[in-house]
Amino acid sequence: MIPVLQDYLSIPDGTLTWNTRWISDFESPWSIFEKLKYTNLAKRKDIFKLFGNAETLNKKTIIGHKNHDLYKLSAFDELLFDQRLGFKLLKYNETVLNSLVEFLRGGEDYEKGSETSEYHFLEKNLSICMHCIKDGFHSLLHQVEFINLCPFHNSPLINHCPSCKREIPYELSDSYFEHPYLCYCGFTFKKIDSNSPLSSLW
Ligand SMILES: [Zn+2]
Ligand SMILES: [Zn+2]
Fold first, then answer.
1. At a CB cut-off of 8 Å and minimum separation 6, what does 171 contact?
2. Residues near 60 by beta carbon (within 8 Å), at least 6 away in sequence
3. pLDDT attached to residue 196
4. Which ligand is located closest to the Cα atom of residue 31?
5. Could you give the C-alpha distances from 163 to 26, 160, 183, 185, 187, in angstroms and in order?
6. Centre of ligand 2 from the C-alpha of residue 144, in Å
7. Distance 192 CA to ligand 2 centre (A)
8. Which of 36, 73, 91, 125 has its CA 20 to 30 A from that of 51?
9. Distance 36 CA to ligand 2 centre (A)
10. pTM here?
11. DSSP 8-state class, residue 178
């Protein structure tokens, strides 16, 4: 069953420059975090400070893939997402991914394969639709290995910066972008409109 976004939304507590209308169906935690960084001049460490669970906050330095993994999101506290974002991000992410697993298991082309991860059919790198990302949007659907075209635009998905060809891992990081949506090579993924600095939608 496809999760209904509305069921995961509430009213944010006002800590952040944020509006739940900026969240779209099937949106990935990656673009939620990029939008948050963009509108709140935040960095990766601020995301941990805002939403990290007790174990994460107790760490002096937050290293290791597990803490930055955007599929499992194990470094974060759902209650803080609910309060500050008005969005049950953990539950929504998990439900969408599980629905995809369920769908693929029922599909004829799906092979069971590796038992090591229930999400082994998901891309390790960020998979980008150049149309979606112009508006700051990235979807969990883009991350499915078998999906090579954006389901919203029917355009090819790419897994590197179109200018410098650098691959961008699908994880919470400041190491690939100088600012949200801006590659270190200078390529801007999000279209910036000076009349409407966010977008028509967010
Ligand atoms: Zn698209
Ligand atoms: Zn680049």
1. 65, 68, 69, 70
2. none
3. 60
4. 1
5. 27, 9, 9, 7, 6
6. 23
7. 17
8. 125
9. 21
10. 0.90
11. E
